[in-house]
Amino acid sequence: MSGIYIHIPFCKQACHYCDFHFSTSMKKKDDMVLALAKEIIMRKSEFQNDVVETIYFGGGTPSVLTTEEINFLINTIYDNYKVVENPEITLEANPDDLSTERIIELSKSPINRLSIGIQSFYEEDLKMMNRAHNSAEAIRCLQEATKYFDNISLDLIYGIPGLTDEMWKKNIETALSFGIPHISSYALTVEPKTALRKLIDTGKIAEPQDEVASNHFMILVDTLQKNGFIHYELSNFGKENYFSKNNSAYWLGKKYIGIGPSAHSYDGEKRGWNIANNSLYLKSIQDNILPIETEILSKSDRYNEYIMTGLRTIWGVSLERIETEFGLEYLNYLTKQSQKFLNDDLLSIENNILKPTSKGKFLTDGIASDLFYLNLEE
Predict the structure, then answer these.
(1) CB–CB of 355/316 below 8 Å?
(2) What is the rounded CA–CA span in Å between residue 118 and residue 135?
(3) In which element (H, E) is residue 49 found?
(4) What gap in Å lies between CA 92 and CA 64, rounded to an integer?
(5) Is the pLDDT of residue 374 over 90?
(6) How far apart are CA 187 and CA 65, in angstroms?
(7) What are the tens digits of pLDDT across the range 20-29?
(8) Which contiguous run of DSSP H or E holds residue 373?
(9) What is the pLDDT at residue 378?
């Protein structure tokens, strides 16, 4: 089974922390939708022997598209690809785009999963992050969306300067009050060249503190697990049968095609990425040229990717797979490198599976980087 990701490179306004590719000008939206459909058709040969299990609209802000535009893109996929009977079709959406009328419209479309960018229920947080919605819209959209959609995920951000442990607990409790079956939650990170970086450098906003983020993470894990959520990936929590199929496929190394500017693709052997420029993307597609760069992944690349994704999930890293797929040299290296983390109770091995402990979860990405094998192949 495979997936198709469609990147919608438009937003009403720029969130201060965001470094994804998008434009706040909607002038080229109509042309972009046609170009996305054309790229979908141009790349159908890549999935000649594959069946599409998931379709994911990400961004940017995909909910700036009309329901007709979304349906047009979905229909283009159905017309050119084999699709399973009940695919997971996700739309990322912002609360300000989800009026009752729009939610009802979407519920009658093929979209069967909403991923709603709440981020926080506190007005001061939303203003600091320059979100397009306010707290009242966040509450209202969840009240309405849960009437028409069963499969809903919402995003929350922790580690925000000024967000106390009590306030963070209240954010989680508010999310849980709607009966949402999936929550994605991320620490506020300060990326270079973002508005947030500039605001911090000029002293207008305090620098996020790792200790605060770590406390918030432990509160999140504890609270959600007590409420029946499975912590199946570092930043993702789902009730049983509500894991994101799209994201799980990515973490498990399944094949996917990325459509649109800056979108990435992967087939197990090579990775590709589209040009991150709307005008150049449009011109290339109009000229019948795919604006994509590719790289063949070396054995070391594939090993490192498996370490990174495996450690982030409940499925962990199979030592048997390391030996079978990558060889004894890699297994010996992993065994040696992981020993210090095993000694410090940050990693554990059970049934030949290497996983982070509860203590090590928040440090997963840093641990993974210490397990990477660099320059094994020339």
Answers:
(1) yes
(2) 9
(3) none
(4) 10
(5) no
(6) 28
(7) 888 889 999 9
(8) none
(9) 40
Instruction: Tell me the backbone φ, ψ of residue 230, rounded to 5 degrees.
Output: -100, 125
C-alpha to C-alpha distance for 156 and 178, rounded to whole angstroms: 14
CB 126 within 8 A of CB 134: yes
Stretch (H or E) spanning 319: helix 319-321
Specify the length of the chain in residues: 378
Token pair, residue 177, equals: 């009050």
Strand partners, 233: 236, 313
Asked if the model's pLDDT at residue 342 lies above 70, the reply is: yes
The angle that helices 328-343 and 364-371 make with each other, rounded to 10 degrees, is: 140
Q: Alpha carbon of 195 to those of 116, 185, 192, 199: distances in Å?
A: 23, 21, 9, 6
Q: Which of 84, 83, 75, 91 is nearest to 41 (CA)?
A: 75
* Contact assessment for residue 39 and residue 287, using Cβ atoms and an 8 Å cutoff: no
DSSP state of 11: -
Residues 6+ apart with CB under 8 A from 235: 184, 185, 186, 312
> What is the SS3 assignment for 208?
coil
3-class DSSP assignment, residue 152: strand
